Amino acid sequence: MIRAAIVGAGAIAAHSHVPALRAHGDRVEVVAVADVDETRAGSLVPGAAVYTDLGKLLDAEHPDLVIVCTPPYLHAGQAVAALSAGAWVWCEKPAALSLAELDRMAAAEGPGGPYLSVVYQQRFGSGAEHLRALGGALGRPMLALCQTTWHRGEEYYATPYRGRWATEGGGTTVLHGVHQMDLMLSVFGDWAEIRAMAGRLDRPIETEDVSLAMVRFENGAMGSVVTSVLSPREESYLRFDFADATVELRHLYGYGNAAWTSTSPLWSPPEDVPSSHATQLGLLLDAYERGERPPASGADARRAMEFVTGLYASAFTGRPVLREELTADSPFYDRLDGGIETFFTAGIA
Q: Where do the GFO/IDH/MocA-like oxidoreductase domain residues begin and end (predicted)?
């Protein structure tokens, strides 16, 4: 049995990670939970050891896998501590507040493990796997549409750490849209250039509640990306136009095969595996058992964070941004807002 620990006993742990762990209960056991609220930690997984300090948990339990479910500003320090203790880490998104933090986390990996993997569960449903497996059979990639039009109101932003650059790193782009962006990039590959706008149009927060971008991929294809928390009718939508076929996905927070459509007669996923934490966790456990780097880690995890960094850089500077510009000396490498004091749009007072 793989011995797992959870740090952060809030809603994402309770509603997504615990059910995923139960689905793989024949392979993984939760031996400990850490949370600043001892009562909450004790109620998450009955029977697991309870801690209010991750360091003490690591020293006492020596888990094989640590699942990080805390607010974003805590991720880097906790992931580095777990990796340094020899545990693999599966970290909720956004894994870090910046590329600099993400690179510091990756630097704590060992040459053959432990590894850091990021929760990008929407990439791993059977529809997405089938689309990637088709490869060039659909023709040259031409156009991608990537839309995350969700709704988050006052109650959501009442949580103190939400909507702040210092504690979340950014707004809806890095918090919500990154899921669809990661899936888009897993199909069309690396991006080369991005032109973006973003704004705080309605919500009383520091960060953006809307962003839009145009992207050129390294393979020459182009794309349009829209992210919002102001949309009363919520939807996650992806469209991939290839030379010989169109493939579309409509869902909200997860999908099965029925959510996909295609004009191609080649479209026929061999199984129906939903996008879920349980699906990604299974692949992570497979990699652990083989001693191999898991999916959504290393360069594979960095791609989406690099994309949102480029989007913010373009939105703040008002100019196109090339992927090659996002080096360690870029102001956006250390902070998604680039250290710019004023917000890029004055949508509300």
A: 136-235
